[in-house]
Amino acid sequence: MENIMEVQHLKKYFPVKGGFVSHTLGYVQAVDDISFTIKKGRVLGLVGESGCGKSTVGRTILGLTPATEGKILFEGEDIAGAKGEKQHEIRRKMQIVFQDPYSSLDPRMTVYDLISEGMVAQKMVDGRADLEEKVNELMLKCGLFPEQANRYPHQFSGGQRQRISIARALATRPEFVVCDEAVSALDVSIQAQIINLLKDMQEEMGLTYLFISHDLSIVRFISDDVAVMYLGQIVEMGTKAQIFDHPAHPYTQALLSAAPAFTKKEKREKKRILLEGDLPTPYNPPKGCRFAGRCPYAKPECQEVQELTELEDGHMVMCRRAQEEARRKGERI
User: Fold this and answer.
1) Are 12 and 31 contacting, i.e. CB atoms less than 8 angstroms apart?
2) Strand, coil or helix: 23
3) In this structure, are residues 143 and 197 in contact, taking their beta carbons and an 8 Å threshold?
4) In the prediction, which pLDDT does 332 show?
5) Is residue 57 a contact partner of residue 31, using CB atoms and an 8 Å limit?
6) Which residues lie across from 47 on neighbouring strands?
7) What is the DSSP letter of 213?
8) Smallest Cα–Cα separation from 315: which of 258, 245, 256?
9) Closest CA to 30 of 184, 229, 178, 214
10) Between residues 98 and 268, which one has the greater pLDDT?
11) Consecutive H or E run containing 309
12) CA 63, CA 90: separation in Å to the nearest integer?
């Protein structure tokens, strides 16, 4: 299975201005040297606490905010910094579903205009009749009714608005979709409906998703692979089974321990890991492992530069302790 998306050493720094002449005092390292791949037709779940840089990754990949450094390869071609006709072509193949359907939809546009705008811009229709047919077909697929096409976003509920957002994103028949906290603003019952809609559309259209979320239960359901972010870096990455059943990084273990247990057995077996220490700032992050100040297993060598390393079971982890334990297990075998 080929890779549809390859991100290599991606960095996104935001300048911090100050002083009388507003000069640059430093940089907020929102995303700092991350690399990952997404295979065609699969879902990569990107998880981590608020402020770790998840949404910035998604926006940078799509070109909504320019990358500071690094390569973004889409179907083998570097699209970082693409402009003009090339950017227009990429817009058709790559789309995004934003977190808040209340602010991501233009309140002055009807549902028909919102969904048809991309088709018209990309010249994907042959006349008015063809446009209406395609809009109505897409609305039905996304759980909306064609008679609602002339209504405005404020006339819909939150779940219906997110369905409109999904229909708008799928209007250009993209190959890759970023779901940026696509269900976090919705009620739990509506979340299940939207997740099932995304899964159905993936199967029908052969979509690939980058699914950004802080809800581990949803990520576990929809994802094939999972990457865990902490303070602008990916600290662990692997298949869904590797991350959820055998987490190697102390931060991943703490993150999973904070997720709610749904059965009595889980409640008995789950051990809550409480982290101590202060969360470092992305403006001046520590050298070496950024989690070392809160890690119960930290050693002096953790202050050195660390990189993602592949363990024996194939998943990647940025933690010397996890790497040493994996080597010891290999020696015993």
Assistant:
1) yes
2) strand
3) yes
4) 38
5) yes
6) 228
7) -
8) 245
9) 229
10) 98
11) strand 309-310
12) 9
pLDDT band at 263 (very low <50, low <70, confident <90, very high): low
Amino acid letter, residue 275: L
Token couple for 134: 């395609």
Burial annotation 321-332 (CB, 10 A radius, 16+ → b, else e): bbbeebeeeeee
Amino acid identity, position 225: D
Amino acid in position 311: L
Residue the block writes with tokens 């987490």: 247
331 pLDDT above the threshold of 50? no
Q: CA–CA distance from 7 to each of 43, 47, 205, 267 (Å)?
A: 15, 17, 23, 38
Please tell me whether residue 97 adopts helix, strand or coil conformation.
strand
| Both structure tokens of 305 | 């530069």
CA dist 34 and 22 (Å) reads 30
Closest CA to 131 of 173, 174, 171, 89: 171
pLDDT digits (tens, 9 = 90+) for 164-211: 999 999 999 999 999 999 998 888 889 999 999 999 999 999 999 999
Q: What is the pLDDT of residues 130-156, one digit of tens each?
A: 999 999 999 999 999 999 999 999 999
Token digits for 182? 């696509």
For 44, the 3-state DSSP assignment is strand
Determine which of 3-17, 73-87, 100-114, 115-129 has the lowest per-residue pLDDT on average: 73-87
309-310 β-sheet, strand order: 94-97, 176-180, 208-212, 43-47, 225-230, 233-239, 316-317, 309-310
Q: What is the pLDDT of residue 333?
A: 31
Tokens of 212: 């950004």
Do residues 56 and 32 lie in contact, with contact meaning Cβ atoms separated by under 8 Å? no
Q: What share of the chain is helix, strand, coil (3-state, %, to 5)?
A: 40, 25, 35
Q: Who's near 5: CB < 8 A, 6+ residues apart? A: 37, 38, 61, 72, 73, 74, 176, 208, 210
pLDDT the model gives residue 116: 96
